[in-house]
Amino acid sequence: MPNLRDIRNRIGTVDSTQQITKAMKMVAAAKLRKAQERMTKTRPYAAKIQNVVGRLAESGSINSPLVEKSETNQNILFIVVGSDRGLCGGFNNNLFKALEKSLTKDFSNQLEAGTVSLVTIGKKATAYFKKRSYNVIESFPGFFDTIEYDPTSAIMESATNDFVEGSYDEVYIVFNEFRSVIAQNRKIDKVLPIDPDSFDVKSEGDSKTSIDYIYEPNSEAILEKLLPLHLNTQLWKAILESNASEQGARMSAMDSATENAKELKRDLKLKYNQARQSAITTEISEIVSGAQALSE
């Protein structure tokens, strides 16, 4: 059985750890509120752009290289949104393993041919995929220190230009979609080529719209401006969804760690009391034995 000093030191260590995890939980909760606010403001904007693009596509054919499908689908680009910091449970690993499973199942030929490329956002995504020898063509560690729209749009614009030039046949965004504080949806969304048929053109309270809109100057010119904006907004939305999911996952993980520290401290105190009681009993027995020996 460990001595009293060892148990007392362990209790002190667990108590310090509990204070740290409790503080981290509170910090994550504060960051989560801000992240949720930004995310909820972006969701309607992204949905509305998608709705407008869908209406424009419905009014006529789209003549844009962003909707042209390749016959081979050989060169694939994945933009993986992870996190910069750990201590957030399975937030990163679950997403990365979901991507690896999808690569093995749906892109095995491209993976064997070495035509799968990755752009990683966040230190954890960069470290994970570089360590496993994936073709990481560009990485953005420290991206979440200051979450801004311009760097996000620059990443998407670079991928869009590569797609238009024929460097890639398909582009996907891999991220955690915020569902609740304790749950995230792991998403692998194809953003290029754009599929106009996938857009929701329903308006509130109606089925498909029957209104005949007049576009000025014309639907083609508007689409030329809206399609790149739609792509940039999709990645921006994924970044905000991932950030909110990360803070929720960290808050949940730190809450569990705090509760585990409480239970561990309770068990250690019980062991400490048992060891202390055993030591006292031993000392009393020795005193009694000594007294008896002296009397004899």
Task: Walk me through the topology.
Blueprint: H1 4-59, E1 76-81, H2 91-106, H3 108-113, E2 116-121, H4 123-131, E3 136-140, H5 149-164, E4 170-180, E5 183-192, H6 219-295
Parallel strand pairs: 1-2, 1-4, 2-3
Antiparallel strand pairs: 4-5
Helix pairs in contact: 1-6, 5-6
Q: What brief labels describe this structure?
A:
296 residues; Pyruvate Kinase, Chain: A, domain 1; 61% helix
CATH superfamily: ATP synthase, F1 complex, gamma subunit
The main β sheet shows up as: 5 strands, mixed
Q: What is the strand tally?
A: 5
Q: In the CATH hierarchy, what is the class?
A: Alpha Beta
- Count every helix, treating DSSP H or I runs of 4 or more residues as helices: 6
In the CATH hierarchy, what is the architecture at level 2?
A: 3-Layer(aba) Sandwich
Which blocks of ≥5 consecutive residues have pLDDT under 50? 204-209
End-to-end separation? 34 Å
Residue share in helices? 55-70%
Task: Give the rounded overall mean pLDDT.
Answer: 88
Helix-strand makeup class:
alpha/beta
Strand order of the largest sheet: 3-2-1-4-5
The oligomeric state of the chains shown is single chain
What is the CATH topology assignment? Pyruvate Kinase, Chain: A, domain 1
Assign an overall shape. elongated
Notes on the structure:
The chain is α/β, with parallel strands linked by helices and 296 residues long. The protein has a single domain (22-254), classed as 3-Layer(aba) Sandwich (Pyruvate Kinase, Chain: A, domain 1). It has six helices and five strands, in the order H-E-H-H-E-H-E-H-E-E-H. Strands 3-2-1-4-5 form a five-stranded mixed beta sheet, sandwiched between helices. Helix 1 runs antiparallel to helix 6 and helix 5 packs across helix 6 (219-295).
